[in-house]
Amino acid sequence: MKILITGAASGIGRGLACRLARADHHLVLGDCDPKGLNETRRLCENLGATVKTRVLDTRDREDMAEWIHAEGTIRLDMVFACAGITGGLPPPKTAIPTPEREDHARLMIETNLLGSLNTLFPAMDVMKKQALDPHGRRGRICVIASVAGFVSYPGTPSYSASKAALDRFTVATASTLEKSGITLTSVCCGFVDTPMVRKNRFPMPGLVSTDTAVRHILRGTLRGKRRVTFPKWLVLGARLTDLLPPRLTEHYYCRQPSAQPHGMPDY
């Protein structure tokens, strides 16, 4: 089995790579962090997997297409689009609150949304040309969205927007793609204990370990679920809160530590 993973240098991407590392699996791992990527490769090879790595930026559409098509010349069974970033509002410079910077918002959209699409479209192209496996599938694709995509959160506007768009696109495309024998899964999870979220300066409700997240993600992807969500109570709360009038939700959200300037890292 051949499996391609972006964002493999740490966090969920590394967790998935290590969980899938075994003697009969060929892992293709990508990330923009060469040091972390090499460490993931070492861990996976120690577990018996054959591993190839590529240092690249998912925002580079041409580079991503070339890489995925080259790796899919024979077969590509599973693809996990895990590359992404998070971040919040900049520290205030005046008494007037500072909105999210334009360059920060563009970076978030380009990485979380366009970077994932740069993974998704070449993967679809490769898998459509593959023969059906014994289960009647040509391949499985999973993208990492977020429970933040269910809310309009003042503390991280572009992160919420990028994950909302990614989840909606993935779920809306899944039914059409399934007719080609390809399953498409969106993961909308809460806080996962990864190096990225450890930079947050506020309590994180519902925080789960990377191992727990990986179990949920793999189980849902292998079952061909349209959307994987966890923790359930956090997702339900976000869904219900988003039904309220925006000014009412702002009254609650804007009081939270995570919505304060510099509560999250500011890229």
Automatic annotation (TrEMBL):
The yes or no answer to whether the keyword Disulfide bond is present is no
Keywords on record: Oxidoreductase
One of the Pfam families matching this protein, by short name: adh_short
In which family does this protein belong, per the annotation? Belongs to the short-chain dehydrogenases/reductases (SDR) family.
Name assigned to this protein:
Short-chain dehydrogenase
According to its UniProt entry, this protein's organism is Gluconobacter japonicus
